[in-house]
Amino acid sequence: MAVPEWIGSESRGDTLKAGEAFSRRLVPGDVVALTGELGSGKTVFIQGVCAGLGVREPVTSPTFTLLQEYAGRLRVFHFDFYRLESVEAVAALDLTAAFEAGGVCLIEWAERGRPLLPPDRFEVELGPVFEGGRPLPDSRRIRILAPAGREAA
After folding, report:
1. What pTM was computed for the model?
2. Structural domains for the chain
3. Dihedral, CA atoms, 106, 112, 114, 117, nearest 10 degrees?
4. pLDDT digit string (tens) for 48-69?
5. Burial bucket for residue 148 (CB in 10 Å: 0-12, 13-18, 19+)
């Protein structure tokens, strides 16, 4: 399988739309691992996913609470591993319960708990767009890798 090309996003609105479009691919039990540096648009992408799943409440990054749950077309478990410094700290969250709850797990800073994530997950990478060696403030690039047998977009 070829690695998908990067999708361009020139605004917060574009990133929201990309998340919303991606949400149509999700089914109960899906795990989505999001990676990208601080400010790369992970939370904005997740806000788009949640909008596409019919979540009506405000979606914020659970940096301090580690987990937010939302109700929509599918139950959403939104994790943020940013403050966790070891795989052991991530393991203490009991991810298996969320993975088996029949909803969708969206995980920011997923690289911090990668060994604990199921192999059949979506990977969403977000990064800046550079021009003249400097990042463009509102532009992002997004790449979605799908688990075997699934389409990313």
Report:
1. 0.91
2. 10-112 (3.40.50.300)
3. -40
4. 999 999 999 999 988 778 899 9
5. exposed
